[in-house]
C-alpha cells in the first residue's frame, strides 16, 4: 500500500510537467472531466476561505489520505475534524491569491498541482492590545482524484506544503 501511495504522489509532478508541455490550444479547451476536477478543487478552496468545512467530506473518498508539511494527517474526515476545522475557528480570514492549477486527466484518475499564496488573519485575542500580524505563505498542493461510480470526481490523496515567501531583492 505504501509503495502504491508513494507512486501516486510522484505522478502529479510528472503529470504537471506533461500538462505544461501541451499545446496552448489544448490547454485553452479543457475537457468536461478537467473542468469537473477543477470544480472540486475550487469548492474545497472556497470552503477554506469561508472558514467552514461543512459538506467538504463529499469532495474526498472515504479512504482518502491527507499529507501536510511533512505530516501524515490520516483521512480527510479525521483531518477536518481534528486539524482543519479547529484551526479555522482561530482565524478571522483565510484568503488565496496568485492561484494556478495544472490538471491532467487519465481515465478515471486525475492529477492536480496547485500553487498559491495564502494569507491568514488570526482572531484578536481579547487579552492582546492588537491583533497579530497576518500570516502569509506560498503554498503548493498535489492531489490525486478518482471518478467514482456515480461519475463524481473525489480527492483520494492530497499533499500540501508551504513556506514563507522569498523576499525579492
TrEMBL record:
Highest taxon in the source lineage: Bacteria
Q: What UniProt keywords are attached to this protein's entry?
A: Signal
Coiled coil region boundaries: none
Q: Please report the organism this UniProt entry assigns to the protein.
A: Hymenobacter edaphi
Q: Which residues form the DUF4440 domain?
A: 37-155
Q: Which SUPFAM superfamilies match?
A: NTF2-like
Q: What is this protein called?
A: DUF4440 domain-containing protein
Q: Which residues form the signal peptide?
A: 1-20
Instruction: Please give the InterPro entries that the UniProt record associates with this protein.
Output: DUF4440, NTF2-like_dom_sf
